[in-house]
Design brief:
The complex is a heterodimer of chains A (about 260) and B (about 400). Chain A is mainly alpha-helical and about 260 residues long. Chain A has 10 helices and 2 strands. In chain A, helix 2 runs antiparallel to helix 3, helix 4 runs antiparallel to helix 6 and helix 8 packs parallel to helix 10. The longest helix of chain A has 28 residues, at about 45-75. Chain B is an alpha+beta fold. Chain B has helices at about 155-160, 175-190, 190-195, 205-215, 215-235, 260-285, 300-315, 320-335, 355-385, and strands spanning about 20-25, 25-30, 40-50, 55-60, 70, 75-80, 85-90, 120-125, 130-135. Chain B has a 4-stranded mixed sheet with strand order 2-1-9-8, with no helix packed on it. A 3-stranded antiparallel sheet of chain B has the order 5-6-7, with no helix packed on it. In chain B, strands 3-4 form a two-stranded antiparallel sheet. In chain B, helix 7 runs antiparallel to helix 8 (about 320-335). The chains are: A mainly alpha (about 260), B alpha+beta (about 400). At the A-B interface, helix 1, helix 2, helix 4, helix 7 and helix 9 of A face helix 5, helix 8 and helix 9 of B.
Chain lengths: ~260, ~400
């Protein structure tokens, strides 16, 4: 039997007083509010707090994953239905919160430049994206990673349902497992492409040391060998250039790809 | 099973004789095993911090950067438990209860002679065929932090200097610590500090840490440790910051030519920082509490986050649990009094409290590491299970 234990974050994510004191952009009940700063000083919230707010959401996502895996490995079937309902509720809430965060983003989080690479490039990773502010570049990579984490950990009960963030057209489609599988793969790949295109734009070194995890999850979702080579090269170069350990993630990717 | 080769008796006239380990001034130098590279350098620090306040030993070496855990058997004998089982004689007064017996390997010891004079040689066979000889040339001197440089003497170093056994690095380099720390501090500010600042518009680590370092040794050594380790990982390949220039300043360049073992410097400053951190923590029990009811000041937390980054820098799947444990123990130490859990003082405060910038910067750095730790550990655990 597989025992998968996952770890909760050490910080208490429900202590809104603490997080808001640190500048988290949420209102009193904990809903994302990028337009209103909780600071005493008025004015639009600072970009760094917008980024930091995503960290809080990522932590919540990590805890959601940790709780799920714990429930799955417990083997206690008594209140599975209740657990499932709780999962669905939490997942939906996370989905809505991350969407709210994304919709509230200011223009600084939009790419400053984007080019298409020549045809000889790998099939999917054919773009370079550059942000004038590398904090924003890195934040957007984390955003796409958050989306991927949510998709990968979507509760089974929700598989055939469309989450509220989906477009109405998609919702109108009749869903079966095959279509779910395809749309999930497409979505994951699109997020992976976004992450890699920012990486291929060669942001500065501080953004590069923070992109390891997004690149890793992007790599997991890319199936084409040439795409995978690009991801590996990006990861290897981080360690080569900056000394930031990436090799263990490279190995995990090779293991997962079976290469 | 053990190699009968006795290092201690290797004739000096033989050009291939394995140099003996020299125990001198809290420092052991010399190869730890026969196959060692000749240019390998080792240094052993005696630092307080064992489970019962015994000295801990660390071996610094080109090939063996691992920290070595040590059990102090009594005032005269210390056993290193891993990765090499080394038995050596320490004639320095440790002031600990001689009755403390914590290790089952006691039988491996030859009872050392009590005349622990200036030159006592002991030779002991160790595990895995590693013969190690330790020559005690003089009792471990009581070291102290050399703060002959800029700024005011830190309160941290002046409190209990006798607890700090500081190994000199004179044999290693003669460029002087001021030159060293200037180089590393600047590199910290220009490279790894900027990594920590990516999500902070105030750039606390790259801009404020050098300022803090003027009076806070802990912060200074932590920054130097991270900077040196980072340079070590890229073999000293240092980017030039601040654009194109015809001439670099002196402090941007390492004065020595050739391959510099920056990792060694990283460990050196890491050790110094950990020492100071432990001092802070042990002294913090009775320290006053601030308006957040917190016991430790923000500068310690800033240093702790830098030190966790130092650990994260080379995190590998195999080494993860150890790194996490290290980080977590740091966190637990700082967390035990609700480090980040705000309990505003009972009396109503007239204005809403705004945490200082240092705490904010450290907090968000920690939050990121917290997420990473959760994320990493999940994966590592999955890998273990999938291999079954």
């Amino acid at each position: 039997m597989l025992v998968i234990t996952r770890k909760h974050t050490r910080l208490n994510l429900d202590d809104l007083g603490m997080w808001r004191a640190m500048g988290l952009l949420v209102d009193e009940i904990g809903f994302i509010s990028l337009s209103n700063s909780s600071e005493a000083s008025e004015g639009p919230p600072r970009d760094d707090m917008t980024s930091n707010t995503l960290v809080w959401l990522l932590c919540k996502t990590a805890n959601f994953i940790a709780t799920n895996s714990k429930a799955a490995s417990n083997g206690d079937h008594s209140d599975i239905a209740a657990d499932e309902d709780q999962q669905v509720t939490t997942w939906r809430a996370l989905d809505i919160e991350i969407t709210a965060w994304y919709n509230g983003l200011p223009d600084t989080f939009q790419p400053s430049a984007r080019i298409t690479l020549p045809d000889s490039s790998p099939p999917n990773l054919r773009w370079e994206t550059w942000y004038a502010n590398s904090m924003c570049a890195s934040t957007m990579q984390s955003y796409h990673m958050a989306r991927m984490l949510l998709l990968i950990n979507r509760p089974a009960k929700l598989l055939l349902e469309c989450p509220p963030s989906y477009s109405p057209e998609a919702a109108a489609h009749r869903q079966d497992l095959l279509s779910v599988y395809r749309s999930m793969q497409t979505e994951l790949r699109n997020h992976a492409i976004e992450i890699c295109s920012i990486a291929q734009g060669r942001p500065d070194d501080s953004a590069r040391v923070h992109m390891l995890q997004p690149l890793y999850f992007a790599g997991r979702c890319l199936t084409d060998t040439k795409d995978q080579e690009v991801v590996i090269e990006l990861m290897n170069n981080i360690e080569k250039d900056l000394g930031w350990a990436t090799e263990y993630r490279v190995k995990q990717l090779f293991q997962e790809w079976g290469t | 099973m053990s190699n009968p080769h006795r290092v201690a008796n290797a004739p000096d006239s033989d050009g291939d004789a394995i140099p003996r380990l020299q125990f001198s001034d809290s420092k052991i130098s010399g190869p730890l095993q026969e196959t060692h590279r000749r240019d390998a350098r080792h240094q052993v620090h005696l630092v307080p911090g064992g489970p019962l306040g015994q000295p801990l030993l660390r071996i610094h070496g080109y090939k063996y950067p691992q920290r070595v855990s040590v059990t102090c058997l009594d005032t005269f004998r210390i056993i290193l438990t891993s990765p090499l089982l080394v038995v050596f004689v320490n004639d320095g007064p440790q002031g600990e209860d001689p009755a403390q017996q914590h290790h089952a390997d006691a039988e491996a010891l030859d009872e050392p002679s009590q005349d622990t004079g200036r030159r006592t040689t002991a030779s002991n066979t160790t595990t895995a065929g590693h013969d190690v000889s330790l020559e005690i040339t003089e009792p471990p001197a009581v070291g102290r932090i050399d703060e002959s440089e800029i700024g005011h003497p830190s309160g941290t170093s002046s409190n209990t200097p006798h607890e700090i056994r500081e190994a000199t690095t004179a044999s290693r380099t003669d460029i002087g610590e001021n030159r060293e720390t200037s180089f590393f501090l600047r590199h910290f500010s220009e490279t790894p500090g900027r990594w920590m600042d990516l999500f902070d518009l105030d750039c606390y680590y790259s801009r404020q840490v050098p300022v803090l370092a003027r009076h806070n040794l802990l912060v200074k050594y932590a920054a130097c440790a991270f900077a040196a380790k980072q340079l070590g990982q890229v073999h000293g390949n240092k980017a030039v910051r601040g654009g194109v220039a015809n001439k670099l300043s002196g402090m941007e360049r390492w004065p020595e030519r050739g391959a510099i073992d920056f990792n060694w410097f990283g460990m050196k400053y890491y050790d110094k920082s950990i020492l100071l951190l432990m001092q802070y923590i042990s002294e913090g029990t009775h320290a006053h509490r601030d308006s957040y009811n917190r016991r430790y000041n923000d500068e310690i937390i800033v240093a702790a986050t830098i030190l966790s980054c130092y650990e994260f820098l080379t995190a590998t799947t195999a080494g993860w649990s150890r790194h996490l444990d290290g980080t977590q123990s740091l966190l637990r130490l700082t967390n035990q009094d609700d480090l980040f859990q705000f309990q505003p003082s009972p009396r109503p405060s007239p204005v809403p409290l705004t945490p200082p910038k240092a705490l904010r910067a450290a907090f968000w750095n920690f939050a990121r590491q917290d997420f990473l730790a959760s994320c990493e550990l999940s994966q590592a655990t999955c890998d273990v299970t999938s291999n079954r």
